[in-house]
Backbone:
């Protein structure tokens, strides 16, 4: 990896990558902490619905006040300082910005921002993976048509999984499974923002002091975010989803290649080339030592005796047969690692994960019995939970994508555990995100072949 050297060259030549960030929440703030000290990067502008919050984020991450006091984007570009405001469109349209980092966490808003960025000739690093899960294949196509790069965000687990899959395939290894870890028990699917902390392992006071959003964290706990992220991985890598949703088999680090092999060989996979999420808890709730709750993994196959001997000679973790090996990254650093994507996009014109086909969907399921007139409150809330399914099945049943299940009115009753369909909800057909999803459904009606 020569990205740091290339960044140093940009810094020395006075030709820094010109970056604009939309959103100053937790992920965005973590990136700000590192952008300040990364050579070759100029944060030209930071916008948020609350500019005061954006300034607080900069101050909290060590930025001197004089570095974010530019009165305009033009002045920021001239002086090397940063402009703070609330107008995302102005940032996107600015001639002084080349790369947009979308970190709002609001899928419809993210779609609008990204389409505008493509039209303006800007590269995009998309942290709002919910948007990628429901229309990533079409976003990638629109970016390619505009001659720009659309990328998932390194540091977030989907891009890290894509990186491991790419490593294995580039080394000539067949990928059997890839995914991430999670703390999971089946009843977590019913969790709401009111119950998240008791399951998650934090007290309400610890969460309050950390400024943690209960609905956002509950979207991880209840399985919504794993479904969203796994859909993004499938669409970017060609891996397939399990036919009936993620199963969260328990596993330690040392049993990953044992668990993530085909069922006919003693594992938990329906087929080779599948995504899965591994639980850090046994089904009875006992914690598993040396688990991969915070990390990502890839399982690959040694197709000859020679390769399998090499696995053994170099201490590779394998299944009992020695045929399946695993490589993992035990932790991910979220926004602290996001600069890898910014550099890869800006210096090499390469995405750290981008959709190549529509293979999987994260759909909305009723978290409880829902009544007509209720408003859906999105992933991690009180009304719906996400489930991963093959795109072909999702399209056939007209399933409603989880990424659009925000502030949408229910028209018909839906029983707990049932999938919501387009016919169950009242949507604004003129909304950009809805229009894009409708177009994608027509363009990608048949799933792409596995890659």
Residues:
């Amino acid at each position: 990896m020569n990205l740091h050297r290339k960044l140093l060259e940009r810094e020395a030549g006075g030709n820094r990558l010109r970056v604009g960030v939309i959103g100053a929440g937790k992920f965005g703030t973590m990136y700000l902490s590192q952008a300040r000290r990364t050579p070759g990067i100029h944060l030209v502008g930071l916008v948020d619905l609350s500019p005061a919050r954006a300034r607080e984020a900069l101050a909290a991450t060590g930025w001197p006040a004089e570095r974010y006091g530019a009165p305009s984007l033009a002045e920021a570009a001239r002086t090397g300082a940063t402009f703070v405001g609330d107008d995302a469109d102005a940032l996107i349209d600015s001639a002084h910005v080349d790369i947009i980092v979308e970190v709002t966490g609001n899928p419809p808003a993210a779609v609008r921002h990204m389409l505008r960025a493509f039209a303006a000739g800007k590269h995009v690093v998309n942290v709002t993976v919910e948007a990628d899960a429901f229309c990533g294949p079409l976003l990638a196509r629109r970016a390619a048509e505009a001659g720009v790069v659309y990328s998932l965000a390194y540091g977030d687990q989907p891009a890290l999984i894509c990186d491991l899959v790419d490593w294995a395939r580039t080394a000539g290894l067949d990928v059997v499974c890839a995914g991430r870890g999670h703390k999971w028990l089946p009843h977590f699917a019913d969790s709401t923002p009111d119950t998240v902390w008791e399951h998650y392992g934090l007290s309400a006071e610890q969460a309050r002091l950390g400024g943690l959003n209960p609905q956002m964290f509950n979207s991880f706990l209840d399985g919504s975010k794993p479904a969203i992220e796994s859909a993004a991985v499938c669409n970017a890598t060609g891996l397939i989803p399990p036919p009936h949703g993620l199963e969260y088999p328990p596993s330690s680090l040392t049993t990953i290649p044992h668990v993530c092999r085909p069922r006919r060989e003693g594992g938990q996979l329906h087929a080779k080339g599948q995504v899965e999420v591994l639980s850090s808890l046994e089904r009875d709730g006992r914690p598993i030592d040396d688990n991969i709750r915070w990390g990502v993994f890839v399982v690959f196959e040694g197709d000859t005796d020679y390769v399998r001997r090499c696995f053994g000679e170099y201490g590779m973790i394998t299944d009992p047969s020695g045929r399946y090996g695993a490589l993992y990254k035990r932790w991910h650093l979220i926004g602290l690692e996001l600069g890898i994507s910014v550099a890869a996009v800006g210096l090499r014109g390469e995405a750290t994960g981008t959709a190549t086909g529509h293979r999987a969907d994260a759909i909305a399921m009723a978290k409880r019995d829902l009544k007509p007139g209720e408003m859906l409150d999105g992933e991690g809330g009180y009304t719906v939970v996400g489930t991963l399914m093959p795109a072909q099945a999702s399209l056939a049943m007209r399933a409603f994508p989880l990424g659009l299940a925000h502030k949408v009115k229910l028209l018909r009753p839906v029983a707990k555990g049932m999938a919501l369909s387009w016919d169950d909800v009242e949507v604004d057909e003129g909304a950009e995100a809805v229009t894009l999803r409708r177009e994608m459904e027509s363009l990608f009606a048949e799933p792409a072949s596995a890659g």
User: Anything to note?
Assistant: Residues 129-146 form the longest helix (18 residues). Residues 47 and 86 are 5 Å apart (CA to CA). The two ends are 25 Å apart (CA to CA). DSSP finds 17 helices and 15 strands in the chain.
